[in-house]
């Protein structure tokens, strides 16, 4: 019997991964989460995180409980996914200027220095990382990846939810996914990104 794939939401921090987790949960997928990190001003609808994913390099036993569920895993950890499993990854993309603005705002709210690394250097590091991750994903036979733009979800949630539903082969209901998209949370607009 073929087990369901592990469904993963990934991307850079502040790229819309929590919004996508909320959409998939509304659509009927069970999120693998521990509720340790609770909602706050930066993510008022919740983070949908599972702390054990951070130790995936040394502890991946939790993957046995993840089949048919959805789990959030930042892009830097994707290379540690064991090849013994099949994965469907929804990879969130967002304007780099918006990601950097969102991260800066989060650091300011936490009282942490927001200018340790200049934006141009951070953007270059992130772009290089994304290029490497996307090349790696394209080579993996056990991984299917769907790239989703944060801005497209906000501009046309129904079309994007339908696209995601197709990728997940009917494992989610589209209408409930559309209903949870909250444009009011789009606070780091940096112009049109079509």
Mean residue pLDDT: 85
Structural class: alpha/beta
So what's the overall shape? globular
Please provide the ordered H/E string of secondary-structure elements. Answer: EHEEEHHEHHH
Unreliable sequence segments:
187-194
Distance between the termini: 42 Å
Helix content: 25-40%
Strand order of the largest sheet: 2-3-1-4-5
Beta strand %: 5-15%
Describe it for me?
The chain has a domain at 6-94 and 142-182. 35% of the residues lie in helices and 13% in strands. It has helices at residues 17-26, 96-109, 119-139, 150-155, 157-167, 174-179, and strands at residues 6-11, 30-31, 69-72, 87-93, 143-149. The chain has a 5-stranded parallel β-sheet, with helices on both faces. The longest helix is centred in the middle third of the chain and has 21 residues, at 119-139. The protein is globular. Mean pLDDT is 85; it is low at 187-194.
Describe the structure concisely.
With 194 residues, the protein is α/β, with parallel strands linked by helices. The protein contains 6 helices and 5 strands, in the order βαβββααβααα. It is globular and about 45 Å long.
């Amino acid at each position: 019997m073929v087990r369901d794939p592990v469904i993963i939401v990934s991307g850079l921090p502040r790229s819309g991964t929590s919004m996508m987790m909320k959409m998939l949960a509304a659509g009927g997928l069970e999120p693998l989460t521990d509720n340790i990190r609770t909602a706050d001003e930066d993510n008022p609808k919740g983070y949908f995180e599972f702390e054990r994913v951070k130790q995936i390099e040394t502890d991946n036993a939790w993957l046995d409980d993840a089949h048919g569920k959805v789990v959030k895993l930042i892009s830097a950890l994707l290379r540690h996914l064991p090849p013994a499993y099949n994965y469907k990854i929804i990879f969130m993309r967002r304007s780099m200027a918006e990601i950097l603005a969102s991260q800066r705002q989060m650091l300011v709210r936490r009282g942490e220095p927001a200018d340790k690394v200049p934006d141009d250097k951070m953007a270059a590091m992130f772009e290089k990382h994304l290029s490497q991750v996307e090349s790696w994903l394209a080579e993996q036979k056990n991984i299917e990846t769907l790239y989703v733009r944060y801005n497209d979800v906000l501009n046309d949630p129904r079309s994007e939810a339908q696209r995601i539903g197709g990728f997940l082969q009917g494992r989610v209901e589209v209408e409930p996914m559309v209903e949870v998209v909250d444009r009011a949370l789009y606070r780091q607009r940096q112009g049109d990104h079509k």
